[in-house]
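Cross-posting from the modeling subforum.

Setting up a comparison between two proteins and wanted a second pair of eyes on the formatting. Protein 1 (sequence, then structure tokens):
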Amino acid sequence: MAKVSTILTFSNQAEAAFSLYKAVFGNEFINVMRWSDGPNLPGAEKMTALDKNLIMHIELPIFGGHVLMGGDAPESCGVKVSHGNGVHIVLEPDSRAETERIFKALSDGGKVEMPLQDMFWGAFHGSCADRFGIHWMLNCYAK
């Protein structure tokens, strides 16, 4: 079933922010992955021990079926979080064809941040900013 969620990207503050959100919404985390838990991704050799302990991905159901996701973007990996690029609307279409259609339409006149590709967590994934500067991530788990 298709769904929509929101992802928040932080500069070394995801754990503190999600601790607050957990207290506010009173729910438990679904998933917590630190950078040290993931595969040896490009740029990982530049990560400090502190960076490796940062949150790579975290999920917290808030209400109405909406899941708030987030993580840290370590600068040692070449990512700099700035005002406006720390929030993405996440779409999870039911098919790869629908994912490609939506991605193409949203990125037309905008900017592809990460081309659609198969990822280690099992999704066909990509991200873009549309021509209005709104950031989108697409994940499709259907084969």
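Protein 2 (same layout):
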Amino acid sequence: MDDTQILQKLQKILKSDLEAVTTVLVSGGVDKIDNYKYLVGQVFTIKRISQEISNLLQPKEQKNEQGTVIDIGEARTRPNTKN
């Protein structure tokens, strides 16, 4: 199993978990504010991790790892105007 397959499988698990937590929240299955806060925290965490996995699965915009080169033409120095 390669890295992409692992990440895709993890995405499916996270999606299933998100649906389960969302169902509990929407159906009124929370009886205490502490439980509500806990479930909202789970939703936030699952969505954050899912987004990071999506970012890893998408191809990079730049394949060149050398960085950006900016041509500034002739280098000129400014005269020091502070005296």
